[in-house]
Write a structure and sequence with these properties.
Largest sheet: 8 strands, mixed
Order of helices and strands: HHHHHEHEHHHEHHEEEEHEH
Shape: globular
Number of helices: 13
Oligomer: single chain
Mean pLDDT: 87
Strand order of the largest sheet: 1-7-6-5-2-3-4-8
Helix content: 40-55%
Length: about 325
């Protein structure tokens, strides 16, 4: 049993940093030990002591309960706060780790991603600079500076963070099978928010027009995705649905032979998540049932697809 969980622990390290040199440097920085000491641990000449295992598990979100096989009857959710405006080097490393993990999923044809949302999800937003910036601005306005109100014009996304967003946008399209279920008023909510911030002069008319241009670009892209049932860049499957019942918040899961993880999205930009296999299985079942009250607008139902996108175009035109 000891060998089994320790093997899994070592595998988890290499999943986070597939290249040994990257893993070695990350461990040197985290544990503050010499390079040769790290090499001895990776060669298994010696084992990681308990205090180092705990520190690694806490910093890199590795569940020791799952590795050891302890079943407490409870499901633990974790949260990894990230400052998306000015991410630290560690936060950028975490975001890049997510991207590497997503890219690795292309090797598993049965991998599924499913997102249920009442706002445009990051998977779709990441390719649009001003739309992504708007949600970041809204997040800061609601949950950021307590004393200072920061207008849209003052939100500056670093080039490094923009590069991470672009890499994420490319990676997400590598997933073999993706499904999105949207609240029927998803664009209406967004348009209403933009109009509100414009009315209180937090967003200028010129900035509003810039966001509007990207919304039109996104809508054209999504119409192409819906018509073909796939991402044009990778030809990977995409299923689009519109829910006939309201969606309370954003939920998602990723299910593959290598990773089973489910997310609940909170406070606009944050996520709580668990790798618990049973919970991920239940999440998948519950979210798939949402299709009962949803209309598929990709590929099959041309009339519903045209009707939906025409209404969204009218909303955007109203900006």
């Amino acid at each position: 049993m000891i060998n089994n969980w320790y093997d899994c622990f070592m595998e988890a390290l290499f999943e986070r940093f597939p290249k040994r040199l990257q893993l070695s440097q990350a461990l040197i920085d985290l544990l503050c030990i010499e390079r040769e000491a790290v090499y001895r641990r990776l060669r298994r000449d010696v084992t990681f002591p308990v205090n180092e295992i705990v520190k690694i598990a806490l910093e890199w979100n590795i569940s020791l309960d799952d590795l050891i096989g302890i079943n407490t009857g409870q499901v633990s959710f974790q949260m990894q706060p990230v400052n998306y405006l000015n991410p630290s080097p560690d936060e950028l490393d975490y975001l890049r780790y997510i991207i590497r993990s997503i890219n690795n999923l292309r090797n598993y044809p049965s991998t599924e991603l499913m997102v249920i949302s009442n706002k445009l999800p990051r998977q779709l937003l990441s390719g649009y600079k001003n739309l992504n910036k708007f949600y970041l601005f809204k997040w800061i306005y609601q949950y950021g500076h307590e004393k200072e109100v920061v207008p849209f014009s003052k939100i500056e996304v670093s080039g490094e963070k923009q590069q991470v967003d672009n890499e994420y946008n490319l990676a997400i399209k590598q997933i073999p099978d993706s499904s999105f279920i949207w609240d029927s008023r998803i664009f209406e909510y967004l348009i209403s928010n933009i109009q509100y911030f414009n009315s209180i002069r937090m967003i200028t008319d010129q900035e509003k027009d810039m966001i509007k241009e990207e919304l039109i670009e996104m809508l054209d892209y999504l119409l192409k995705v819906a018509g073909n049932g796939c991402y044009p860049e990778t030809q990977n499957k995409v299923n689009l649905y519109v829910s006939q019942l309201s969606v309370d918040t954003n939920y998602s899961y990723t299910f593959s032979p290598e990773a089973k993880i489910c997310f609940i999205h909170v406070f606009e930009k944050c996520e709580i998540y668990t790798y618990n296999a049973e919970m991920a299985k239940n999440f998948k079942k519950w979210m798939q049932l949402k299709k009962r009250s949803s209309i598929q607008i990709s590929e099959v139902d041309v009339r519903s697809r045209i009707d939906f996108f025409s209404k969204q175009q009218q909303l955007i035109d109203s900006l």
